[in-house]
Amino acid sequence: MQLFERPSPGEDARPGGQIGEVELSTYTPPAGVPGKPAAPHFLPVLCCVSPSGSRVPHDLGGSGGFSLEDALFGLLFGADATLLQSPVVLCGLPDGQLCCVILKALVTSSSAPGDPNGLVKILHHLEEPVIFIGALKTEPPAAEAAENLLPDEDVHSDCLVALGHQGRMLAIKASWDESGKLVPELREYHLPGPVLCAACGGGGLVYYSTPSDLFVVDLSRGSTPLSAEQPDEGPGGLPPMLCPASLNICSAVSLSVSPRMQEGGTELLALSAKGRLLTCTLDLESEMPGSARMTAESAGRKIKELLSGIGNISERVSFLKKAVDQRNKALTSLNEAMNVSCALLSSGAGPRPISCTTSTTWSRLQTQDVLMATCVLENRSDFSLDQGWTLCIQVLTSSRALDLDSACSAITYTIPVDRLGPGTRREVTLPLGPGEDGGLDLPVTVSCTLFYSLREVVGGALAPSDSEDPFLDECPSDVLPEQEGVCLPLSRYTVDMLQCLRFPGLAPPHTRAPSPLGPPSDPVATFLESCREPGGQPAGPTSLRAEYLPPSVASIKVSAELLRAALEDGHSGVPLCCATLQWLLAENAAVDVVRARALSSVQGVAPDGADVHLIVREVAMTDICPAGPIQAVEIQMESSSLADMCRAHHAIIGRMQTMVTEQAAQGSSAPDLRVQYLRQIHANHETLLREVQTLRDRLCTEDEASSCATAQRLLQVYRQLRHPSLVLL
């Protein structure tokens, strides 16, 4: 705020030199949200107030100036302003501050600078943009004073009024307290908003406009004379509540009370939102519902309306509180989800704060043995998994994984995670097979993932389905999240043949369980089996294959040096063949028995009942290295079932690949090799592979009689490929 000298009559109309300046601190609201309507922009409201005895020219304040009675002026602005008879500028700021600046103090501050903050005094804070500042006379003048009042003489106001945009109204008046001391009386009223403009009229009336109507309130009703000689009238002079009366005029954006007084009425000048200047003549004597003329019937009706409005507001508050609680809960859940996501994504290769471990075991369900997977979800973080979290377990079989045209390549189990707090765990057990056909397609991959449903949490808070609130607006569809949720992978576990093998022959005799059951047999086969003569041979396909066909065999040779380097930590002092077998069966339940007996070969049973024989022995490779033979370990797999032998072969190769990759990362080097010998072996393998492709193509075109010989040759070639002359170094 800057103060300039006022030009004298006849001089240049422009302001003279600056004689004072002060800065008002105000809060600027942040910019609006992109894509939404901008918040209305409010300007400060200024007016000039002078004491009743001041000789300030009448046109100093212009249309925004008025004079106050000395008692109220001194209580509001202090003794300095009263003694100096100084005008005061009132400022209503957009952040709700109502402050004042004494002009004569601002003039002297330029010659004797002091604390600039001392020039500004904050009278009140409305907590909403100030729309209007005015003053009015609430006390009716005495009869003698009214007769002696000259037509051009100013009426000194005894009440200061400030009105906020949302309808909060402040009235300040000088009153006597119970001890007879003069004190300022402040009252806040809440009127229907939003307020567009306001004006003060005679008789203690305040007119204010909203987008839907024009209202008038009376501040003179219930007032008491400003006199210490009437203590029985009560200490306060302002009414305890205001009842706005509608004038049925809408969309007035500016108001002014005309100085031309009508008999028994008031003339208002109003500017409408469409730009029309209106003259409104009001007969307030007949329109204002006076408390003295209110009948019992109208009072009862008014009370019923008020009680009904209170009930509606209470119901609305209840619904809004419920909606706020839901959104607060959703925000808390989103914050937890963000923390969990950051913790999991930033853990890297270290221990994860939330983990899911998977293990397998065989269980007997009714008359069939079933392979069960147990997934343990453990929360070692500082956060809680509550609403919206789901544990998704996907079981992918090898046959489905190889079938590219399969519409459903996996089975997914979804388990809601309900209140998994820090330090707690949740265990889930589910069957892996065999299926209804009695087969178990190995390997089986079990993938565990945490899923957080954004639509369940955010959508439920923004558009609750069970809400019957008529006051809540329907949430637009573009506010809801586009994604269904967030997926956080936890673990991936592969179940292969080595984990599913069972070894009934390793159990002690007194604790030996019955032999594992194979797949459920056909009723006709069961009947024929029961009719077999005593001492006869079983006629099942597995037993026939084992009796008349040679077992399918495959082998893998691994450098003894490579195995020792990989197994030195947990198998020191154990023979290399025994340590290798223990390493292969590390995830099998029988590994403790194998370790205790120091076995280097073992015979187990596959899920379909076929025997699988694992043999580990040391061999010497003499043709690879010119420096001498290379000590190696040969792992041999035998099974009467070609499919089970292939599954065991696949499981062992997978472990060898992992071991070789880890050892290669440590920088181990291979010895000198006979490159020409290796090239010859490689060429032989390439020839066999081409023959395999030719035989497979021939099987597709030959008839049944010719395809038998082709199939026999194909099995012979496969047998040669499963016994390579190479060794893993």
From TrEMBL:
It comes from the Eukaryota. GO terms for cellular component: Fanconi anaemia nuclear complex; nucleoplasm. One of its GO terms (biological process) is interstrand cross-link repair. InterPro entries: Faap100 (IPR029251). Pfam families: FANCAA. Residues 1-27 are annotated as: Disordered. PANTHER family: FANCONI ANEMIA CORE COMPLEX-ASSOCIATED PROTEIN 100. This is Fanconi anemia core complex-associated protein 100 isoform X5. The lineage of its organism: Eukaryota, Metazoa, Chordata, Craniata, Vertebrata. The gene is FAAP100.
